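User: Structure please.
Assistant: Input sequence and predicted structure:
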Amino acid sequence: MALAFVCRATCAFRPSCRGQLRGLVTATRPKPMKRFYEEVTVQEVIGSPSLWRVLLDGKVVKTPKGTPLDLPGPGVAAEVAGEWQTQGDDLQPLEMPFTTIGCTALDITKADPPACVDRLLPFLEMDTVCFQGEQDLLADRQRQEWGPLREWFESEYNVKLGVATGLASPNHPEETILRVTEQLLSRDIWELCALEIATQTAKSFIVASALVDRETCLAEEAIRLAQLEEDFQVERWGMVEGDHDVTESEMLKWLTACRYFSKLHRDQTST
């Protein structure tokens, strides 16, 4: 018998992407569920040595759509197992980001990888880090922080980015969109899924790319880059308790999971 991981959701995009709302296993609160198992173990999928499963009292965990949660390697499986092992009397699915990434990859990304790429491109087309503020102090900070990030992205993807001021759009060259599309389509479902969740969390494709692809960009750095404008306003007007601080806590959880999931997966495929 298999056990299904139950956690359905919808995630909000930037205003430019509101027309692309979709179901994701990451946002709304599922119904409370009592812990129903004692032992958590992992095992290699017979006939597929690169895939591993998590078992609860010997029963395979499944995704919400009923697919066995076959994960890319023992490292990822161990992290998922750890999430289940550390649950208390009441299950907290939203505190299980590795499990969520795995379920999302199998239930959503795998079904249509090009659609995942299509959802990512609008974030690039109107990426936060490609807008230049008109206020001198903010504009200076953006140049110092976002300038090197844009340079890294241009080098990583071998593209050129546009930069906008005021109400204009960045207007990236068409070749940039084509090259990024081609590179994204070359990724597997695990990388695409982690990148998409990171992009939705940071509200920036470029920041998310640095998080999962750049060795030196940790989750804390990604948050700082993604929230540069908001942090600038907080410095001027103060923090709204229960909003900004809670948001950062959630961002840290998901961005850390996306980065580490990607790293474990790549370490597995490179061996």
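The two ends are 32 Å apart (CA to CA).
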